[in-house]
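Lab manual, section 2.4: Encoding a predicted structure.

Procedure: take the sequence of the chain (115 residues), apply the prediction step described in section 2.3, and record the output as structure tokens. A sample record is shown.
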Amino acid sequence: MLFVLSCFSQTNLPIFKLKESRVRRRYSDFEWLRGELERESKVVVPPLPGKALFRQLPFRGDDGIFDDSFIEERRQGLEQFLNKVAGHPLAQNERCLHIFLQEESMDKNYTPSKN
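Recorded output:
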């Protein structure tokens, strides 16, 4: 099972080409966004919720990465990360954020630039 988060964004900021969008993103996509922002911008990027390495070990007494409370905790952590990043005026100019929020399929080989 893959952890996929459905991201719905709504904005009135003129810098974004779409006022509403819905995309599906994996944890690795959030890692990509964080890495791009750290590399390309002057934004202090908040941390992502931790990896689930311990939860993937066998013989645990719970459902590991499939546990409902873990899934909800991770969803909330990713939502907080995204709200902080998307609310930052400098990050709003970064092409990687626009790709992440508004393009159904992500081109991770894009040429970094400001929007």
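Check your result against the sample. The beta strands are 4-10, 20-26.
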